[in-house]
Amino acid sequence: MISCSTMSKVKKLSVILVCDTDPDRTRFGAKPLEGTSIPLSWRGVEEGIPDLLNRIEACFHHQAHVPKFTWCLRADEQMRLFYGSYEAFLTQHQPLLQRFKERDDELAWHHHYWRLHESSGEWYQECADKDWMKENFLKSFQALKACEEIKSLKTGWCYMDNDTMQWAKDVGLSAELSAMPYQYFCAPKNQQGLSYGSYDWAVTGDCPYSPSQNDYRVKDQSDSALESACGLREIPISVGRSPLLSWLEQGVMSLRRRRFPEFPIKSSPVSFKITFHPILFNLLWRDFERQIGLMEKPIFHAYFHPDELLRNIDFMTRSAYSIDHLIKNLQFIMKRAKKLDLQIEFQTAAEFREGCQ
Ligand SMILES: [Zn+2]
Fold first, then answer.
1. Which terminus of the chain has fewer Cβ atoms in its 10 Å neighbourhood, N or C?
2. Structure pTM?
């Protein structure tokens, strides 16, 4: 007879699915804002997300654990300029938010540092004017907080620095979801010398951590038990590597670089999108599976955008990302977990954070 002490404990895999609720992007068929040429439509939110929730209910209702989501709601200066208030997303999508709440999903925050360049009319990612950034950050948060309890943040272009991380701690957020482990990105600059996006997580690892004050990308070595229990926790997006993918990526990049000599080089780990084509997803998952055994508290964190759920977009884009892929990838994860004797637990970011005492 096997005693309790010799019986192996079933290992748990926390699965966190995060959505950045952005408007539709051009390659996903964005339509112009009425009376302008600015591409600004929300079909991904209005059609894609309800479609996803219906599919999830239909495919997983018989499961003990139904996939749940952390919805990062857009609130920032760009929303205020387009719609008159930072919290416009919430006021415009009340029935959808109600549905999220009924599913016990989390309402979190998606904040971009988009700033309008007055003379050219172009939007760029502000990361130098800290006064402007801080005011924008605080006003957006206060507006959201007046409507909903917000515990988690995901930034636009995954941008963070020491100051922005401190602001997130100061307002009492408990989870930050932007880290892209081992990755660095800086988009080419436009004629005004401004960039549409950048991030630096080059020295960040895979595991959740309490960020250091001196370097937001790494663990605070003096992390006290109290901070560990109450403070903000960075929860990196899961990554996988594939020699085949890196080889293909380098080929595409060098072709592009011939046309755009300053095109940036992106490092080889790939952050998981749950909408990836299953072939790509499976290739990355093989590497991720090797990491699970090394994790003290195994976690799989993947993200997506609402427009990736749309059906009537062009064939190439639909082949890369789709709602069908998302469903297949979730089924694949469940199958693999069973095979590996892992107990899947779908959690929101805040639930995962609460379990990190
Ligand atoms: Zn975004």
1. N
2. 0.90
**Does 266 have pLDDT greater than 70?**
no
Report the separation in Å between the CA atom of 73 and the middle of ligand 1, taken as the mean of its atom positions. Answer: 9
The strand pairing partners of 234, in sequence order, are 176, 209
- Spell out which residues have Cβ within 5 A of ligand 1, the ion: 20, 22, 156
Give the DSSP H or E segment for 88.
Answer: helix 88-92
Residue 178 Cα, ligand 1 centroid: separation in angstroms? 11
Q: Within the chain, what is the greatest distance between any pair of CA atoms? A: 78
Q: 237 alpha carbon to ligand 1 midpoint, in Å? A: 15
Distance CA 117, CA 124 (A): 7
| CA 126–ligand 1 middle distance (angstroms) | 14
CA 97 to centroid of ligand 1, rounded, Å: 18
Centre of ligand 1 from the C-alpha of residue 157, in Å: 6
Assess whether pLDDT exceeds 80 at residue 238.
yes
> What is the whole-number distance in angstroms between the Cα of residue 113 and the centre of ligand 1?
10
Cα–ligand 1 centroid distance for 249 (angstroms): 23
Who's near 189: CB < 8 A, 6+ residues apart? Answer: 195
Instruction: Find the helix or strand (DSSP H, E) in which 71 lies.
Output: strand 69-74
| pLDDT per position as a tens digit, 81-129 | 999 999 999 999 999 999 999 999 999 999 999 999 888 888 899 999 9
- The closest of 31, 160, 140 to 89, measured between CA atoms, is 140
Compute, in angstroms, the gap from residue 304 CA to the centroid of ligand 1: 10
CATH superfamily of 11-243+271-354: Uncharacterised protein PF12979, DUF3863 (3.20.20.510)
> What are all long-range contacts of 123-128, with beta carbons under 8 Å and residues at least 24 apart?
123/78, 123/196, 124/190, 124/192, 124/194, 124/195, 124/196, 125/156, 125/157, 125/159, 125/195, 125/196, 125/197, 125/198, 127/159, 127/161, 127/198
Domain borders along the chain are 11-243+271-354
H-only helix segments in 199-263: 225-230, 243-259
Using one digit for the tens of pLDDT, what is the confidence trace for 175-190? 999 999 999 888 888 8
Instruction: Name residue 119's amino acid.
Output: S
pLDDT of 319 higher than 70 = yes
